[in-house]
Amino acid sequence: MTSSSSSYVPARVVADLRALAENTGGAEGSRRLCWTPEWLKARAQFRAALSDLPVEIETDEAGNLWAYLRGARPETLVVGSHLDSVPKGGWLDGALGVMAGVELLRALAAEGTPPITVAVVDWADEEGARFGRSLFGSAAVVGTLDVEAARSLVDKEGHRLDQTVAEHGVDLATIWRSSSRLQNVKAYVELHIEQGPILESKGLGICTVTGTKGIERERLVFRGQAAHAGTMPMEMRRDTLLAVSRYALALAEIGRRHQGVTTTGHVQCWPGVVTAVPGETRVTMDMRHISAESLAAMYAEMKQAAHDAAAAEGCTVGFEPIFRIPPMPFHPKLLDAARASVKEVEGHDVELPSGALHDASEIARVIPTVMIFASSIGGLSHTKEEDTPEAHLRMAADAFHRTCRRAMALIAEGAV
Amino acid sequence: MTSSSSSYVPARVVADLRALAENTGGAEGSRRLCWTPEWLKARAQFRAALSDLPVEIETDEAGNLWAYLRGARPETLVVGSHLDSVPKGGWLDGALGVMAGVELLRALAAEGTPPITVAVVDWADEEGARFGRSLFGSAAVVGTLDVEAARSLVDKEGHRLDQTVAEHGVDLATIWRSSSRLQNVKAYVELHIEQGPILESKGLGICTVTGTKGIERERLVFRGQAAHAGTMPMEMRRDTLLAVSRYALALAEIGRRHQGVTTTGHVQCWPGVVTAVPGETRVTMDMRHISAESLAAMYAEMKQAAHDAAAAEGCTVGFEPIFRIPPMPFHPKLLDAARASVKEVEGHDVELPSGALHDASEIARVIPTVMIFASSIGGLSHTKEEDTPEAHLRMAADAFHRTCRRAMALIAEGAV
User: Fold this and answer.
1) With an 8 Å Cβ cutoff, are B244 and A245 in contact?
2) For residue A217, what is the nearest residue in chain B, using CA coordinates?
3) Which of A174, A338, B139, B405 has fewest C-beta within 10 Å?
4) What is the value of pTM for the model shown?
5) Cβ–Cβ of B261/A235 closer than 8 Å?
């Protein structure tokens, strides 16, 4: 079970990642933006890495790329993540989980036919960096992609999502057929970097991930009265920026009080000039918590805080939905598998919820799922500075491999 | 002195303003954007209104349009304001002061040669709505226009200021020559709408203006650390939007405490997306007070509040100048002239400082100056909704005329 004598070689995962960075990165960071030639180049490397193995490589109706190592039985363990990156992104985000999966197929193939089938998947357009719709491929497979909403999306250059994906063989009208990929899938394991500073702050390299936090994301529109900055007395103003300031501080306090996270990331004032009191201010709201109850409480308090802040400045506030996803706790048996593996590799039982969304957030809706995190230096991601100590990458691949072996055993036993 | 029997007809001022609105306005408001054909159309109406009078009409090296009614002596009273408007602006802002001046020349010309010279001026580009440099023509005449800074200004369509004004005969290299227009000028009187709600809130139509408030205008740049909205714990953030929220509330309190005005009109966050803690936030700061001492105190408190707010969130803050102008108290003798006129017309001695800048702010630097305000319905200006009750417009023109007569007497006596 501990596979210390297996042919899984974490150093090869690091070597594959470095080759990918050479191939698709540069001084400005990774360039594997989805649905572009650079992304296809990354996928070509993925195919080439598997070319000597007895695997079947297929693309599904949503653009996801699958590599199957058929086992004695059809029950399937899926592992993977995504090769696409944000523009000027990091070398590890997504790629780590895919390359760790490639090494898993190498190790298993070297041992002959596995007892169950194992697949590595490269999910399409996890980042949503061009069209604003993240988790594209994994949501499509699970059936949670809003196809009509996706159809009308346009990137900065004016390219339509539907036309762009069509150039890659994806027809939005038949994308639902990709769900057949989940037949026989009994477990999903994803290795990813933390993209946050917590492991580093604890002096650790890896941990078990308990689930992904639920998210409420909205746009708040505060409405007051635009006025001349010189002629409107303070006491007669209905200043939406002051209402937003009260609200933003209250929102942060709500996040702290519930041990969740809350963020005001974007602010826009109208008319938005130095000489005018803002008569309308729009802000984005993002809040996350691993507990559905806490998230619901935070959401209710946010609404009250916004109304109170608006009223204090003679303004009103309205709410527009952007996105929401419930907390996705991972599977108890797979969590035990991950915990045992982390304990073997780094000798502790630290576990964290993921504050970031991952393809695992979608897959966990319908398939027993677990994740392992590797630390992030400075907590940085989505930037060329994204990095992880190589020793942590090797530990992470090792713990991932051990978790996969345990998941295969659970599947073989019919326990998941 | 009270000129109740004079030929000055306030109703003609209103009629001229309505004709101008017909000529250069519409459903979306006034379109007299400076250096455009619509603005030239307004100037053509100004010329036409004076065509039957014995006046000399000249354009100076800064693009200001002057109409001189020569008197027995060269000492000169100048009155006026500006015909240019912001895009979709109001019908009264600037135009009221010019048309009240036209009527003054009509009344004086009907009486024969006046004892001193009287000129009406239409200052060029008061609004600065295209290139961001307001008070263009009046600053040029006074010598406070930063010609090198103006040279590089570009409008939204990419037109350069220097090329645009050249099409109207203005050469930035020789614009300083326009200062000769102030030779012999002994007083300046400007009638304008309040553009604020104070007169309306007092149930009044007109008042004396004591001066224009001093302004400090800066850009503040708060710097912290951009981070992922899901993975960065609240207690490890360096969130610039939270720093800005603390600062904006403190700035408003500073304005209230000193009975001045303070405004945060524009906010921009980087990266400025719903999923990121803002690592940098830029805000504009505008503060105004009629007392130089109070303005200086407000400015010092603003800087301290910004540093305190930044420090409270682990951020730093820097300051970039945008614009500043000291308070411009008007001339004591001309203030007395205005007070007496307002008293005669509306029977009270209410006076206000102007929170907005006017061409009078520039002229008052070097010439004895005073202004009269007419009320603004709802305090609105720079919008098509800008309006003033017609009775107030007529009272304002009447008080303006009486003030001009008193100013002419002061000049004739050598008292200003």
Assistant:
1) yes
2) B274
3) A174
4) 0.89
5) no
Tell me the CA end-to-end span of chain A in Å, nearest whole number.
Answer: 17
The reported pLDDT for the residue numbered A175 is: 97
Are B248 and A263 within 8 A, CB to CB? Answer: no
- Cis amide prior to B271 (ω within 30 degrees): yes
pLDDT, average across residues A220-239: 95
Chain A residues close to B288, C-beta within 8 Å:
229-230
Task: State how far the Cα of B326 lies from the Cα of B329, in Å rounded to an integer.
Answer: 9
Q: Which residue out of A209, A220, A251, A275 would a mutagenesis test of the B interface target, given it has the greatest number of B Cβ atoms within 10 Å?
A: A275
User: In chain B, what residues touch A305 (CB-CB under 8 Å)?
Assistant: none
**Block residue for tokens 């500043």:** B324
pLDDT tens track for A382-393: 889 999 999 999
Q: Is the pLDDT confidence value at B321 over 90?
A: yes
Per-domain boundaries in chain A: 10-212+327-412, 214-325
Q: If you average pLDDT over every residue of chain B, what do you get?
A: 96
Judged by CB atoms closer than 8 Å, whether chains meet at B195 and A231 is answered as yes
The identity of residue A134, as a single letter, is S
CATH number, domain B10-212+327-412, options 3.40.50.11540, 3.10.20.740, 3.30.365.10, 3.40.630.10? 3.40.630.10
d(CA A42, CA B182): 72
| Right CATH for A214-325 from 3.40.50.1360, 3.40.50.720, 3.30.70.360, 3.50.50.60 | 3.30.70.360
Taking the CA of residue B83 and the nearest CA in chain A, the distance in Å comes to 20
Pick from B130, B253, B264 the residue to mutate for testing the A interface (most A CBs within 10 Å): B264
Q: Could you tell me if B278 and B272 are in contact, meaning their C-beta atoms sit under 8 angstroms apart?
A: yes
Interface pTM, i.e. ipTM = 0.90
Torsions phi, psi for A126 (to 5 deg): -65, -40
